[in-house]
Amino acid sequence: MERDDGVILKVDDLHVSFDVQGGQIDAVKGVSFEVKNGSVLALVGESGSGKSVITQAILRILPTNGRIVSGKILFCDPKGDGKAIDVADMSSRDPYLYKMRGGRISMVFQEPMTALSPLHTIGNQVEEALTLHHKKTPKEAKADTEEVLKLVGFPDPGRAYEMYSFELSGGLRQRAVIAMALICNPAMVIADEPTTALDVTVQAQILGLMKELQRKFNMAILLITHDLGVVANMADEVVVIYHGEVMESGSVEDIFNNSQHPYLKALLSAIPHFEMAPGERLVSLREMGNGENTVKKLGGQFAAADTKKKIDGPHLEVKNLRKEFTIRKGSWFGSSSANTIVAVNDVSLVVKQGECLGLVGESGSGKTTVAKLIIRALEATSGEVKFNSNNGMQNVLELEKEELMEFRRTVQMIFQDPFSSLNPRMTVQNILREPLQIHKVGIGDEQRDKVVELMKLVGLDPRFLNRYPHSFSGGQRQRIGIARALALHPEMLICDEPVSALDVSVQAQILNLLNDLRGELGLTSLFISHNLAVVNYVADRIAVMCRGRIVEIANREQLFERPVHPYTKSLLASVPYPDLDKLLDFEEVMKSKAHDAKSWGGAFSESGESSLMHIEVGTDHFVLANENCDKTELSA
Amino acid sequence: MLAYIFKRVLYMLPTLILTSILVFALIELPPGDYLETYVNELLAAGETVDPRQIEYLREEYAFDRPAWERYINWASGMLVGDFGYSFEYQLPVRDVIGDRLFFTIVVTFATIIFTWLIAFPIGIYSATHQYSWTDYGLTFFGLLGLAIPNFLLALVMMYLANEWFGTSIGGLMDPEFIGQPLSWAKFVSVLEHLWIPVIVIGTSGTAGMIRRVRANLLDELRRPYVTTARAKGMGEFRGLMKYPFRMSLNFFIADIGGILPQVISGAELVAIVLSLETTGPLLIAALQSQDMYLAGSFLMMLGFLTVIGVLISDILLAMLDPRIRLQGGISR
Hints:
Number of helices of chain B: 13
Order of helices and strands of chain B: HHHHEEHHHHHHHHH
Shape of chain A: globular
Radius of gyration of chain A: 27 Å
Largest sheet of chain A: 8 strands, mixed
Structural class of chain A: alpha/beta
Shape of chain B: globular
Low-confidence stretches of chain B: none
Structural class of chain B: mainly alpha
Strand order of the largest sheet of chain B: 1-2
Distance between the termini of chain B: 6 Å
Oligomer: heterodimer
Number of helices of chain A: 22
Strand content of chain B: under 5%
């Protein structure tokens, strides 16, 4: 390996192990790859595949119980003397390592909130990366820091310098982390899932920024991700990792157009995408417990247990729903100002029986609040929620005592985080029985039989009933959550981001399970997600939320083919496709200010006395627009 | 920030008023008063009591007045530094407490500083070397310190000091200095005696503190920003001090409010065993004989110290942690 061959980092037959109680785990088993100067190499794999461990090994920041067993990590600094240095072979206290970390190879992390210390200002933390490696006077250091903050897109670097991480939005935080990685002008940046925690429009902007800076400074980037869409848009070369071993590697064109290895093929077909034919199923990487057929068989029995009558008209109707939160600032007496935030603003929607309505929006758009208002976990400020149960249309917001109890039985919720939504001190048996006990459904053995039936229905072995949640994987826990929601034979399911905490392969399992159950049991559902592709896979109709309002609502095909609202358009334009023919237009993305209502144009913003209302632009296709606007403007 | 401190100080007032009412009520609670105890004592000793004298005293000390009147007298007196009159000592409370309060503060602060000096390095070492033999060893000694009652340790140390050095380590200074004005020789003598009570009183607090420093630091060490600092190329020790250690300080600053009364009350039994010239033994005697103004003033001072401690910790927290400062609506 010489300076001239353009290879900046060469990992050769790397083995990394972790000492754990009662043995050791081989996390990385003979991985080799090369990163060329000024190019982007993507390391792709699911969680637990060992991809993050490789980056920790390169920087020699493995946790204390991890060690490099064998192999070489050769780093050839383009600005060095041309000799390759074996990082793996160094003592962990070698002074070169401290110079290399942050100085020559720097890192961008997944969680920008926790990667920054909340006690130190942004300026302090970014500047520190500089002063650790270069002697600067405080004045020079501050000037350099502000310059790099400006470079990564802080509109007012002087102000940002004094701010704390919790005062910034997720996107700005990640920009600060990128600034910290760039300030020493490193030869290589390791980006570990840099956009996974971000919203889709912000993700597109951060990816654009990274690409732009990479070209500008001719850096190498080692990009760790599980998202093949991101890979297609960023990488020059790709290495696919599974269980600590390289499955396949090659140029990005080879990988996407001519994938060889079954694992990669499977991974590609496990991701929901926009060109799926109606009724096409995702192929999950590992079929678990049961497939479609089991649900069909058991679902039939399960559904037969309750006789549901056909309902004409809407099953759930939400009208002009509004929720305000009052935030009190200041404390104790005096000078406390009440600040009202409208989380949900004039939301109206209708869900028919058996239909799945997708609710899409970015974090903070109010979609979860809508769900909580519907199930009466929060009290609405104003508006109506009507639900058609066996005894006709009921006004949910006015239900009391027994009626409310009965309503709670008919509408159940599946939560986002399968780790914190199950009580760790209860066995699965108790978790699944609890709703039956609360609603006094059956006694003793009947309840136990029901629980066994539920376990089978969601594809889990009933022998696991006496275990505690911690002994299950994320996907299995989410199945338990689904079983719990089904225990009371609900008529409607509200799924709040049910797959966003899960891996791609597991995500496919859960989505398939939900789809099968919905079909077999005739469930009405409201499916909340920030992931457009996921919503596209499960929903019949889709509502797009932004800043507490529904800006567009339409049938699935219509919304994806003919989006009208600028926000919907920019949302769709920001999704990275795992397809080299449909790359993101970074220039366009970087310019867009999707969240800023002012950039939406006259037809979509309030002006003077005219207010916004939902205007029909097609069959069942409504758009939030100015009541006085020119209707032809909307038919874009 | 200034406005915050001002508000915070205002907030102390109702707390202190409530505390004084509570203290007064508690001391009034047992049946009888100091005079009755006094009369009973005299009778028990076989002496005669002149009822007229008792009546005179009762009037003189305002025992015949309703409780609220006496409370107002006492409370308003405290505002101008008049803490009332000790019946037992026939002296104003201020003169009785005087020196003792000073020595209590000396012993308390020496103990707190001793606790920190020992607990922080050990806690940090234990956390960064988790599950090593040194961690287990230090933890063992810490738990031992926690388990041994203070007064027992005091007795053992007195015995050992007598056996090995042939000296008595009781008291806070050599007997010839008691009642003498402060001089260099007296100061040295105090220092010579101080370390015993400090160690005795400090051990259990130190042990608890080690455990808490360790636990809090362990939590912080797993946070991603620690990795960020390492990936920046920061040295291990500097990285430890600047990020996780500073984060883990919050708990212990929040603790300051509780430390003062805890140390003081924990020290009282020890003070009796070691016959220290602090306020502890005085308070206990005063409570026994229903010497109410003396006891009440003591308790009030403890309450005042607690409130001050909480104030200090709140201000320090706001200064140290921008999240509290900014999200609590306190301006920069």
